[in-house]
Amino acid sequence: MFAYLPHLIVALLAGVGAGYVIRKQVAARSTSDAEGRAEKILHEAKEKAQETLNEAKNKHQELLLDAKDKSLKVMEESKREEQTRRLELTEMQKRLEKRETMFDTKLIEIEDKKNLLETKEKQIEDAKGEIQLIRHEQAKKLEEIAALTKEQAEEKLMAEVEKISSEALMSRLKKMEQIEEEEVEKQSRKLLSLAITRFASTQCVETTTTAVELPSDEMKGRIIGKEGRNIKAIEMETGTEIIVDDTPGAITISGFSPIRRQVAKRALEALIKDGRIHPARIEESVAEAKKELATEIRKAGEEALATLGIPVGSIDPKLVSILGRLKFRTSYGQNVLQHSIEVAQLSAMMAEELGADVFVCKKGGLFHDIGKAVDHDMAGAHPEIGYNIMRKFGFPEELAYQSIAHHEDKPRTVEGAIVKAADAISGSRPGARKASFEQFIQRMEELERTASSFDGVEKVYAIQAGREVRVFVTPERIDDLTAFKLARDIANKIEAELNYPGEVRVTVIRQTRVVEYAR
What we know:
By secondary structure, the protein is mainly α. Helices cover 69% and strands 6% of the residues. The strands form three sheets. It has a three-stranded antiparallel beta sheet with strand order 1-3-2, with helices on one face. Strands 6-7-8 form a three-stranded mixed beta sheet, with helices on one face.
């Protein structure tokens, strides 16, 4: 076996060598093939890159050509637009030059006319001076001829004309006044009747009662209390006076303020119903009554605004409460809040017919008597108080003025005259107001006394429940012209000094009786 070993080694080495050679050849062949494929791939890539580059160059050249074409078109269009604008500017400049030329021509014409007018004006002034000089010379010659001055001649002429034409003048004056009064009365009656017919409301006289009914006369002692402590507590809390007299089943509350009287009445009614009457309970009842009354007052003001279609939000809440206080205020027995609503509605209707400001008339009519809500607590007359209240809450002057206008002789605005007329209509309706017998007699006496205070008045009679005053004058002292003036003076004095509902007619009667006997 060992004899064959060398041969095996030789054979093995020969096989290894042959394998190596074969492997190297195979490896060389594989490398050659890989390089060939790589070169092929590289060559193909280069060709594709070259093709892509050529295509990009072609597209770039096409884009450049398109851009150049578009830029050329834009440049051509801009040149055309520039030429068009230049033509337009040239035409505009020509028109302006033409207008300037026309203006220059007109200015020259105006200057020539102005110079001509100045010349004529100077000539007229010179002529006026000459005319005045001629008139002065003529007047001087007439004065020398008549032996009278100008003033003396005028006075003498007027005296002669008055003497000759006084009767005709008086007749003409009466006729003109009668025609004017008839026409005005006709138109006013038509307007007022239309407004009153459209606003037809029931009338009932309201009075503020201050009597509190009691279940029995024994309750009077409980209200008075021990040593009068209960009644003193009520009077101190409410600011009123409690009158306990012999009237069966009732006590009376007295006080200037209607609000305080209402608080006292409600508190007493609550105490009587509860049965516990002592100072502490009285204080609680008065506080509760004030809260209830404040709520009712606010609701009354809101309801009044809603009735007239005025937005509640447009009025200050404090002013709404002041308006609601008028529910417990009366004037000659007429509820002032209801009266204010009626005045507002009548004013708005008349304003529609006359073409006046409906809003000012309606709102001014509602608040025209707002001063009466606090006139018991503030000094001054209710028109001025109302004016100050409305101005304080931001009302414009034309609205605030309505508080004063309805008491002025001649309101300065149409709306003021309308509110004044509506106030008179509402107050003078049958059943709207009433007065006691003593107040009625006092008003009649004041009317007669006021008319009798003038010179030349012989007798005065107040008739028709104070709606008319008939004045008889002495004919020797009062002539017809003076009678007209006397009637106006008496009416003005009544308006300025007296308080009365509606209007008062003043009739001055001058009568001359001549008696002669034929025998």
